[in-house]
Structures are given as C-alpha cells and as structure tokens.
User: What shape does this take?
Amino acid sequence: MHLLDYILGQLPGFETVEPSNADVEEALSAMKLEEDGSSRLNYFIQVYRASDYPVYADYAIHRSQEELSGPRQFVVTK
Amino acid sequence: MATLLMNPCIRITALTLSNLPSTGESQRVSSLFLFVFMAAFYNCNLTPFSMAHEETEDPMAYKRKPVSSVHAIDSSSNPPKLSTLDSVTMSSNGAVVHGRYGELPLDPSAGIPLEYLALLYPAAQGAAALRTVANGSKSGTVLVYGAGHAAALATLQLASADGLAVVGVVSGDQSGNDDYVDAVKCMAVEPGTVVSEEFAVLKANFREVVDSVVKGQDAQDVFDPDGFLEDFQKNLIEYSKYFPENVLSPVPEDYNFSGKEKDRKYFDDNISAYLSQFQKGSPAFDEVILKEAFTKEQYAIFKSKFGKQLTAIITGDDEDVATDFNPADIVKKMTESPELISDYLKHQTHVLDGEKGDFVPYEFSILKNQIANNVDLPQGGPVLGAVVHVTPDLAVAVETVAKAKTLRGKAEALQFLTESQKSAYAAASSVVTIAKEHGKPVVVVGGEYFESNWVISYT
Assistant: This one.
C-alpha cells in the first residue's frame, strides 16, 4: 500500500481532536508578540519566496517530499 | 560659496568661530584646526553621527515583490500541491483571509507573521489537544509523541506556557538532528523534558523519566552513604588485588626480556629500577577489618586529604605537599590507627545557611546529604494524558498491526515492518501505555481533519 492510502492524523482506536473556534483564537493569541518580543508559540519555518521566483513553489513541494525532509515547516509565499 | 554656507558642518564651524572670545593665538589655531577638520569631513562625504544617513538606492538591486498569500504544502493530495485550506491571503483592504477559517479577526499590533498563519490549523489542533487532555488543570504532566511536528509542537509550547510539565518524544524522522532535539528540549520548561524516539523505545528508561518528572527527583533517593562506602571498600579490595605493592608492575609483559643475550643478566636490576619510578601498588587489606575500621567518618577524613594535597600542589606550598601521597597506604594506616574527625568535617553547614555556613555547594559529603543544595526540585504533577502526532511511520505501523486479529498475527505484522516503523510503534506505545495506566485520555493530532471520528478503547 502507498503511504497516501493511510490517513495521517488518525489512528485506529484513538480520538482525533477537532479544533473549535476557541482553539483557533487560542492559537492566534499564542502567536501574538508580547511586549518583550517573545511569543508563546514559535515555529521553525523555511520560506520559499515564489512571489519572486515562481519555480520555488514546485521546489518547496519537491523538498518537502524527500525522505527525512527535515524538522522545519515548509511555507510558500506568493 | 553659497553651497558651502548651506552645509551644516560649515555653518556650525562658522558659528563656533564667531562666538569664540579673542583670547590669543592658541585659540585661533585650535579654531582653524576645527574648521579644517570639518571641511575635510564634508569633502570626504562623511557625516557626523547626529546627521541622518541618506541611503542611495542601488539601481541593480533586486526589489522584492509584495507577498499576497502564504501556503503550506498539502502532502495528502496526489500529487502533492500547495494547500488551499492551510493558506492565508491578504485582500486589497488589508484583511487576512484563511483558507479554512475565513477572515481572521487580527489585531494589527499583534505582530503575527503571515507565514505563521498558514500553520494556524496545526496550531489550533495542538491547542485543542491540550484542552482535551489538560481539561483546565493548572498543574500536571502531559506526554507528547512527535513533539517536533507542528501540532504536537504547539501542544508542547502551550502546555509549557500554562505551567504544565511536558515529557515529549521527538519522532524518529527528526530525532537524528541533535540540534533540533535540543531546541525542542529548551521549549519544555523544567521539570519537563524532551527525549528522542531512540530513548523512548527503552520503555523502562522512559518510564523512569516520566516518574522523575511527575514526582520530582528527591535528593534523598540518590543519597546512600552506606552504599557509597560499601562501593569504595569493594573497589579498594579489587584494586589491592590487581595492584599489589610487592609487584612493581601488574603487566606480565613488562618482565619479558627482549634484548641482547649479553644484557640479560642486568635485566632484572634495570627493569626494577625503571618500574620503581612509578607509584607503587596497594598494601593488602583484610575485608573484615576494612569494614569494621574504615567507617563513614574515616572516609570523610580520607576524602578531605585529597583537597589538602591538591591545594598544597596548586599553591606551591612545598612544605605541605606529601611527596609519597599514596591513597591506598593512607587507608591502610587509617584502618590500623583511626583518626579523629574535626568539627569542620563533622558539622558542616551550608554556605547559604546564615553567616557561618562553610559547606561549598557541589562538594560531596558522605556525612550529610547536601545534594539538594537548597535548590527546590520542581514536581510536574500527575499525568494528565497523552498527545500523539501521527507520523507516516507510525500510521503504517499502527494500521498494519491493527488489521491483525490474533496476538501471533500482530507479532508477525510487527516483524515485517521496517526498523523505523517498529521504532515509531514502540516509542508511541511507551507514551500511550503510561497514559492508559493512569486512566488518562490519549488524543491524536496531525494530518488532515476528517469528518468521521471514533473513540474505541485501546487494547
């Protein structure tokens, strides 16, 4: 079976959480910058500027599909 | 000339010159020097710090295009593509519209990067998982598997910010990056911690880590003076048997002659002289006498001698340096003639206790438990539950094992998994088992959200 035949985010026998509006607001609140410049929630992100180089969109998809692609989040800007 | 007068440097210099009193030649020379300096400053196109620096735009420099949308990557589609759900778009009036949640009520002063908003769904999922597991608790321990992935990372950070302890496991697809594991570990506030999947596979070790986080590591548990003394006596007996003082070298090869035959008759004297320069071995010890005579107080006195010897060597105090400092001989003498312990060793107080404290933090004393050193050891509190981020390896492993109905079938299914899948299954089951033993919920995050949910007890 291909990996895509398995549903990521679910495991048989376990409950998958459903974010509510309150959870979305909590996440937004956690991303907000405090007065000292810190925030409760931080991510490691690699930004691919497809707005400047359109080929970066495909390149980002390619890099994200590699085996052991790395711990950062892939984000493409347009 | 008019241009020169318009220059602020020249005008300031002119004003300075005009306001100076006529006090003589030296004043005129220094004024002239000031004028020349300011003129040179102007001619060199340098500006004083008080003046704003005008940046000239490089015509060849690339100008970035404005960003109007940010997308995450949808790995669940075939082929993978830019996600439309996990994306944000800035409209012409400055509103931020999320692909999943619509227009977001953002405060412009919040300073949230647009790139973060593309990860709003996993962040919200992490918040939802924490809400489900913690259920409003202000203290407790949350177990997280896949702590390096987006949703679980959000759970870890939000739980730590709320004052909860987190024991996280970085999954195998990320645990090879030591720097990343350390970075995630820094996000878990004390007493919480983060371990790699390779450690969580060792179930007893992982359970010990969770217990120490939940209960806090009590210094009394590790301070065992009787055990320490017994270990020392046992090691000393073994040392005296391996390095007896009547043998110059315990290495039999040192006594093998490999020179010319004419030198053989001198070998014994030569090798004895050579080996004598090294520290001699240990006298023999009677185990019963050693246990009877070498008490904890004698051990404390013995350890203090090392401090005195070291201090004398470092300070260059030749009079106090013992040239024949042989620890084994010292113990032998102390067992034959026990020494009196000083008040200093017997009644050490912590240096932070009042004005007369003399115990140095981190100096080990067998007579008094000073390991805690007045440091409060935090306790995480009871286990609240577990959050499992479904990684590809874990998804394959759990699905494969779940399809098998018998125990033998499950064992066979596990056997035919890849090593990474087996490792993911073992580590995740370490996390889930501990949560289930405490009767706490286990929730799953990661991937796309689907409408159908089900709750079945894990067996």
In short: Chain A touches chain B through 51 residues (CB under 8 Å). The longest strand of chain A covers residues 45-49. Strands of chain A lie at 15-16, 45-49, 73-77.
